[in-house]
Structures are given as C-alpha cells and as structure tokens.
Queue: 4 jobs
Job 1
Amino acid sequence: MPPFRDRAEDDVDTSSNPRMTQQQVCRAIRDQIILGVFAPGQRLTEDTLAETFGVSRVPVREALRTLEAEGFAFSRPYAGTFVAELTEEEAADLLEIRALLEPLCASRAAQRRTPEQLGRLKELTALGQDAVRAGRFDELTRLNSRFHEVLAEASGSAMLAQLITQLGWKIAWVYAVELPRRAADSWYEHERICGALEAGDADAARRLVAEHIGHATTAYRLRERGAATAGS
C-alpha cells in the first residue's frame, strides 16, 4: 500500500520541486490524470514527464509502474504507457464500496478520533469552504481526498485507512467533473460530519457520511443521465 500523505506533503508544490521523490512524481501524475490534464488514452512518455518535473527518467518509470498497478495507466508492448479510462461499471463498483466502508469509518472515528485529527478535519473543511467561496475549484480534489483520508485514519483502523486512501484516488477521478456543481453543499456536509465527530455521536456520524455519499452518488448519476440525453 502507498504511504499516507501528511500535511507537509499536502502543501508541497510538486510541479516545481527539483528534489521530487518517486512517490511525489507518482502523486503529481496521478493528480493530473484525476483532473483531466492527462486525458484517457493519452500517451505518457518518460522523457516529457522527466523534463516537466525536473527529474531523471528513473523515478518517472517507477511512478508509471505504480500508476499502472493502481489502474490509472496501462502499457502496450512496443507502444508505451497510456492513461486508462474509468468505465461506468468500475465507477459504479467504487461508489458502492465507498457507501459501505466510509460510514463505518465515521462511526468509529466518532469514538476514537484524537483532538489533533478533529482539528485537522476542521481545518480542511475551512480551507475547502474558503476555496469554494473564492472559486478555486482546482484545490478541492486534493482537499476533499485528504478530508476523507484523515476521517479514515481517525477510525483507528490501519486497514480501513489504507483501503480508503486508495479508494479515494479513484473516487476523486469519478467525481472530478462534478466539483463546481456540488462544491458548496459538499463542504457544508463535511462541517456537519465534524460536528458529529466532536460530539462523539457515532450514529449521527455514520448517518451523515452515508447521506453525504448518497448525495454525491446522486449527482454523479444525474450527470450520467444528462450526458446520455445530450448524446441522443
């Protein structure tokens, strides 16, 4: 499993860091795939990526192998490595798994979270709400992913936290196009989740996270329906 990103890593501008590690290169490429900078089917060339991030080809090569293992990329013999495409079936599976795991995380977190974890969740919520008000939607994917990672860590279960971290990268990929549409509601829901955690109310935390995921899933399905209507 990949290591968790801590707060210091969240604040690093990996696009201009001349001492980027393989993990940071991997994260930077993954973030750009999630945000659509690298489109499905686009070729990812080692030379171009190494020049972009100011590193040698070695960390880029290792990063691409990791991304392939995670399902963000695929390779073709004698052709190279390309950005994968998330199918609707895969997206549906991810959303269903998320709906099962994250309410459990929240319920446990209400009873096990530390003051530091609660403080970090509140801080991330404030940062997200500020980004929404300022229209800085490009910041929301990382802030949202980190909120859910910290929530999972607060459950006290290393296994749950690892699962949610990896799941969160794919969930961000599913939802990236929905950011402006549901951003304000989403971060208000995060604020309510923090309130349940602060009160130590496991049932409310479970319910609020389940509702939060349900709202996001509904928005995604509405987008699918709209795209199908437009196509017809």
Job 2
Amino acid sequence: MHKPSFPVAPGETACISLEGPVGPLEVLVDLPKADVPVQPIVAIICHPLSTEGGTLHNKVVTMTATTLRELGIATVRFNFRSVGGSAGEFDHGVGEQEDLKVVTAWVRQQRPDDRLWLAGFSFGAFVSLKAAAELQPEALISIAPPAGRWDFGGIAPPARWLVIQGEQDEIVDPQAVYQWLDTLDAPHELVRMPDTSHFFHRKLIDLRGALTHGVKHWLGTAA
C-alpha cells in the first residue's frame, strides 16, 4: 500500500495551513536529514507560552526538531491559536489542546503506519501532557514542564517519557518539577541539566545531547 506523503521534499521545509477549531493553524513540516536512516516516526513539537512570545520558531523547539530529524524522525511544529499565522485567542491551554488534536489527526491521516511522538517545551510540555491520555503517543518528551504553574491533574503519559529540566531555571522551579514527578506512578527518565536556565542559553548543544541520548534507544522498537 502506498504510504501518503507529507507536502514536503527532502531537505526542504513545508509551511501549510490546517483548518483548526477556531480558524487556520500554521504548521511547519520537516522530513529527516537526508543522510540518516528514516524512522517510521513523526514527532509533533509544541511551543512555549503564547502570551510570552512563544512560537514554533523558538530556539528550544527548533533544536528539538533538528535533533529528532538527525535521528531520522519527521517533525511537525505548529503555532497555537493566536500565534503567527494561527487564528483565535489564547485559551490557557484548553483550546491549545484542541489545536494539538487537529494537528495530530492530520499527521495520522498522512502517515497512518508511522508511530507518533509528542514533545513540548514549557507551556508546550503542559499542553502535550494534558492531551496525551487521549492522543496516546508512543513516546513523550517534556522539556521544562511548568509544574506548579499549571494544573497537571489527570495526566497519563506513555511508558516512554523523557523529562529534561534545567537546574538554574528561573521560570519553572526545578524543585517543583522534581517533587511533582515524585508524586506520579508514571515511569519516566529525568535528565537534570546543571547550570542551565529556562531557555537553555548557551546550552542548546547540551540539550541536543540529552535528547539524543534520551530517545535513541526507543528507535527501531515499537512500544
């Protein structure tokens, strides 16, 4: 059976518009790097807080996409409602979960045989965690999840869950994250990055290493 293709050529980025719950959603699609074996995986990456300048072009989001593409994974970034070319107003994570669900439905339509990973940075980590119970990704990557700032009640992360937290985060309290994780029964792998601020200033290469080391053993094996 012919597998549907994303509207993008190798080595290029495709910018598309999907019809979201309250209007268009701006989406960027990138295929894996050309010189690596292709994995049957698509990762959707969620950006940080919309009201504080978070977009799909955020450097942590972009580094996450680049790292995963270097591992042979196709990536999809998108702007939540009210950001960039996406219509609507900020909805405190509720409507943003609906935005993510629309993007996920499109990905699964385009690549029905591929495995789904979700990733998110800060507010994006919150949104992807809250939506995980319904969307059932194979794996989840949470970078600086804002524990203590948003309601994480009712989450159900998958068995493959990587959490990366900077030890000098000035926006998300690292101790709040660690204490929150200790209250959960969900298995997870926690990476604490020393001397690292919220936006990973001068630590993006270290973030790439943490991501690569954290997920590479998931490749090639379905959960």
Job 3
Amino acid sequence: MVDGQDFGRSMRCGVKCGNGLLTIAIAVPDEGAAISVSPLVGFTISKREIPLAVDRNRVKRRLRHLMRERLDRLPSGSKVVVLARSRASSASYTCLAKAVDELLGRAIEKLGDK
C-alpha cells in the first residue's frame, strides 16, 4: 500500500521537470530496496490552482488516461507525481499530451544522468 508520504518523498527527493501546465517528479527506488514491478503514479490538483471541482476532475481524468498510456516508458518500481498548474484546466487534451511527453522525456533523461 502506498501513502502520501511516499509521493511526498518523490516530490522532495526525485527528479523534477515542469512547465506552465504541469510539474512531474519521478523517484526510483534505491538499489537495495524491494522493487514493485509497475510504477505508481499520483496526481496533485489543488483547489488553489484550479478552484472548480468540475475542472479539477476533468484535468485528473485526462492526466490519468495520458499516464496510463505511458506507464511502459517509466522505470520499474518508480513513483511519479503529476502536479497540475492553473493553465491545465483550460488546456486541450493534445496540449496536455504534448506537455506530459515532453516532461516525461526530460525527467527520464535526468534520471539517466544521475
């Protein structure tokens, strides 16, 4: 079971990339840690950034779908946090998809540099 502290560690200790729409943080487990096979993805969409619940839920549904399609690109056992910014509520699906692809690519590249 995963709790909020796991994703908090990802935000603090993981590799972060962001733009005007999203911020993505990825943390991979340490060498000796038990590794779960599939990556875990969490979403943070704050009321301060996106005040209307309808908009927050729409953004979350879109991001959930986009990340589900990209799970195979993520390192095994990684924990990913996707943080939506205020502009994400007015962005189109294709715009969100481009942002996710760009940020995932940059974050995974940074992980390789570590």
Job 4
Amino acid sequence: MTEEKSTFQSKMKAMGPGILMASAAVGGSHIVSSTQAGAIYGWQLAIIVLLVNLFKYPFFRYGAQYALENNKSLIQGYEEKGKIYLWLFFIMNIFSAFVNTAAVGILTAAILYNIFPNGFGLSIAQLSAAIIVGIWIMILIGGYKFMDSLSKAVMISLTLATVLAVIIAMFKTPHIDPNFIEPSPWKLSALTFIISLMGWMPAPIEISAINSMWSIEKRKSEKVSIVDGIFDFNVGYIGTAILAFIFLALGALIQYGSGEKIEAASAAYIKQFIGMYASAFGDWSRLLIAFIAFLCLFGTTITVIDGYSRVNSEALRIILKKNNESKTQLNIWVSITSIVGILIVFLLAGNVAKLMYFAMIASFLSAPIYSYLNFSLVNGKEGHIKGFLYYISILGLIYLTGFGVFFLAYILKLI
C-alpha cells in the first residue's frame, strides 16, 4: 500500500485516538498519583516518573502501530498468537473494566461533592451512580465522535490551567513547616506507593489495546496514514508524560513541606487538589478549576467505560467466532460495565483509596504480560523492531518484570 504524503492538515485530521488515550490517562494517574508524589516526596520521584513513561512508551506505541499497519486491533493479534493469550486478556480486562470504572467514577463524583454543598444532598456513591448513568446514555447516543470532540477541549483546558498554576507557584515563596522532616521514598515502606504510581503512569498498559480499536474507529471517518497515526499517538503519549511532571511540580511547589497531611485518594484529597490551584490563582478560581478538573475526570470516566467495553466486546466477538462487529453487543458491554461499576461503588464507596491503589497495583503487575504480547506481535518472527525502539523495549520488559517480581516478593514476605 502506498502511503499518502503527510502534511500538517493530514496530521491534524488524524488527531483523535492519541488524545482519547491521554484523556483516559490523566484522570487517576496525574490528578491523584503525580500530584501526591510531589506533595509527599517533592522532586525525589521525578526519576521514577521519567523511567516508567520511557519504558512503557514502546508497548503503548505498538498498539497504534499494529492497528495502523494491519488495520486490525491488538485483540485480533492476540487471538492469532494463540487462544490462551486472548482468554488471558479477556479475563484480566473484565476485571480492569469494572474496577477502573468505579474508581474514576468516585473521583469524578468527589469533585461535584466539593463544588456544591453536600453534593446536592446526595452521597458520593449516589453521585457516582448518577454520573455513570449519564455517561452510559451519552455513549449510547453520541458514540466515538462525541468523545473525540470532548476530549480535545478538556485536555487543552486542563493543560493550560495546570501549566499556569505551576508557573505562578514557581514565583511564590513556599511555606515550609519548621518541624518538617524530608521523607525518603527509597524505603520498602514506600514501595506500595511507588508501584501504584507506576501502575497507572501514564495509563494501564491495556489501554494500548483500546487505543488500537480507537485508531481503527478513526479510520472509518478519516483517511489516516501510518505516519500521521503515529504522530497522533506521540502527541497524546508525550503530552501525558509532560503533564505528569507538571502535576508532580504542582504538588512539590505548593504542598510539599507545608506540614499539611496529604489525604488518600478520596473526596478529602480532591478538596486539597482544588485548594492547590486556589492558592496559586486565588479563591476566585476555585470553582473554575473544580469545573475543569471535573471535566477532565468526567472525560476519563467516559473513555474508560467506552474503551474497556469496546475491547471486551471485540474479544467476545472473536471468541464466539462472529464475523461482524455488533453495535448491539457493544451497547450491552457498555451497560454491563456501567452497572457493575455502580455496584462496586456502593459496596466500596467508603474505601475509594484502597480501591484505587488496588486497581493501580493490579495494572502494574499485569503490565509485563501486555508489554510482551504487544512487543511480540509487532516484532514478529522477522524481527521488525530495530535500533533504539528495540533496546528500549528489552529494557522496559526487564524494568517492569523486575519491579513486579520484587514487589510480589515483598508482599509474600509480609504475609
């Protein structure tokens, strides 16, 4: 196939799947984990943020690359490698779909709970359910095009607000508590936090399979070349990596050393997060920043529900050996994901921090499996991957596997 010439206009038209991936990434990992990393440890974990973004890059890229080169999703590739890989992906992804939907749904509700007095008289669990139901309806009515448009507006708004907040914070004299003792993340007691930070940094690796399906969906409305598709992916991925450092800087410049207790990933932490912007811009900005953060997490919840439902629907279609994609089957999966997510919210609403950390850690422990699958699909028997990308892939597999084994050994020792 002859590739059409890549131009600025063709690159702009190709934008979409990479931005959706960024939207799915920013919610939990950046607003919560990156900011907390800076607030608790200052700049000490910047090296971990850098390494995990670098070493996960090739495995995320392979999702977009495989779809663009073969016009097939990663899920189809898993099936061609062997049924066991498809079943393994399907089982792990069902778990991720339900838990991640509940986790980001609760965080989105927590913002509303802080914007409006007592959240309109509703509990966070009730607000979460209302948000998930609203998103369920939007996805059924609007589909991919709706998400494509919303994610771009949300990402631009949040990026501008966060960059501006960090710039203002840099010129302010930080308040350091005279009794503050600098904590070290290089202790075994901090290992769980570091693993959870890396689990969703910049996103769970299974998002690569979702991105491959978004890439195929994009091609149904636009002609997207391989070059332009990779450009879209790079913009989304590199953008999220930069944002991770910006959010870490926000926590390091405003909360680190202040003596204020850093809350866990709950409604209380969301209140602190909004307060950081307010301390940079002034109280007048509190509602504006809360609204932008709400849109960001709202967008994350949309992409999580749609994305996980999309890949689960595709995996089941292949398992059942159905030839054609079914809109009805996708809608059923969207409904199942939403309903089970709501059930988990009501069961675990009081333990949102534990729920999120569990989901993040599970994502990290499964990362080497997804990474190897993606690498082996694109590399193939002929060894298509060469040079820098190949060596980063090998180092990434060693890094992710090594950390995972070390963490499991640490947990087993505790037990």
